[in-house]
């Protein structure tokens, strides 16, 4: 077993009633590595991501994160681990509450984790905005006052506020204008270099996958076909 092993998924099965969406999928991912899940629509990419995040409990199989088996933990046992595995979804406007200013959305994980101090909390939020390439003044805005690319950057800042080790990136640039995709992918690459994050990267665009991922696991009808 690699010392850097971050995520180990074995024989994963995800069902929705009679539908088996994921049928015995296995892969592993090291810290600092990007593993792409690729394949046609409906092959089980998002279901795999949700099961890794334990947002959809698998019907069978194992998800070990930082050496801990997640599948048999209760919701309350999972809670303290959740900050370390964070999702970034396709629709950035769906991730951030429309009612809250960006700075409050980024401050929330810090507050929930008891890492908010009035003295330096606002500066930490400004630092996170700056880290994702947004002027800290954007903290005053609400999601609908940002472009799609800016909003996705704000979502990434919120994920970073939790102090993650793994980001589960489910089509993170698919809803963005082609002209801003490269900027967000470059940001993710920089963050990975700086922070040693592991990325489980879901993307249907083969050109993006080839460019961005270290390894690719190809799925078809819920099974691994290569990787
Ligand atoms: N909530 C659900 N209820 C019932 N079936 C579902 C549900 N979510 C997904 N499925 C089914 O599970 C299978 C896998 O879907 P999933 O969304 O994981 O695939 P995907 O590869 O991410 O597809 P896409 O690229 O279109 O997002 C499909 O047959 C889909 O119809």
From TrEMBL:
What InterPro entries is this protein classified in?
Answer: AAA+_ATPase (IPR003593), ABC_transp_ATP-bind (IPR050319), ABC_transporter-like_ATP-bd (IPR003439), ABC_transporter-like_CS (IPR017871), P-loop_NTPase (IPR027417)
Name the UniProt key words of this record, in alphabetical order. ATP-binding, Nucleotide-binding, Transport
Q: Which GO terms describe its biological process?
A: transmembrane transport
The record's SMART domains line, in alphabetical order, gives:
AAA
Pfam families referenced in this protein's UniProt entry, alphabetically = ABC_tran
Q: Which GO terms describe its molecular function?
A: ATP binding; ATP hydrolysis activity
**ABC transporter domain: which residues?**
7-227
Q: Name the source's superkingdom.
A: Bacteria
Report what the protein is called: ABC-type glutathione transport system ATPase component
Q: Which organism is it from?
A: Streptomyces collinus
């Amino acid at each position: 077993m690699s010392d850097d092993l971050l995520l180990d998924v074995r024989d994963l099965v995800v069902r929705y009633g009679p539908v088996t969406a994921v049928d015995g999928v296995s892969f592993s991912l090291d810290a600092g590595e990007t593993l792409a899940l690729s394949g046609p629509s409906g092959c089980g990419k998002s279901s795999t991501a949700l099961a890794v995040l334990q947002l959809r409990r698998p019907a069978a199989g194992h998800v070990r994160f930082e050496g801990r088996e997640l599948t048999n933990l209760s919701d309350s046992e999972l809670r303290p681990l959740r900050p370390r595995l964070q999702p970034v979804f396709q629709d950035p406007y769906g991730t951030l509450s429309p009612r809250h200013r960006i700075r409050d959305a980024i401050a929330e994980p810090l507050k929930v984790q008891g890492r908010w101090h009035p003295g330096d909390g606002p500066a930490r939020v400004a630092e996170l905005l700056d880290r994702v390439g947004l002027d800290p003044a954007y903290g005053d805005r609400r999601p609908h006052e940002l472009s799609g690319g800016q909003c996705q950057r704000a979502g990434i800042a919120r994920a970073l506020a939790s102090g993650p080790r793994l980001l589960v990136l489910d089509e993170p640039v698919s809803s963005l204008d082609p002209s801003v995709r490269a900027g967000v992918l470059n940001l993710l690459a920089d963050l990975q270099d700086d922070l040693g994050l592991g990325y489980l990267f879901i993307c249907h665009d083969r050109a993006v996958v080839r460019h961005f991922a270290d390894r690719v696991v190809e799925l078809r009808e819920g099974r691994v076909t290569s990787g």
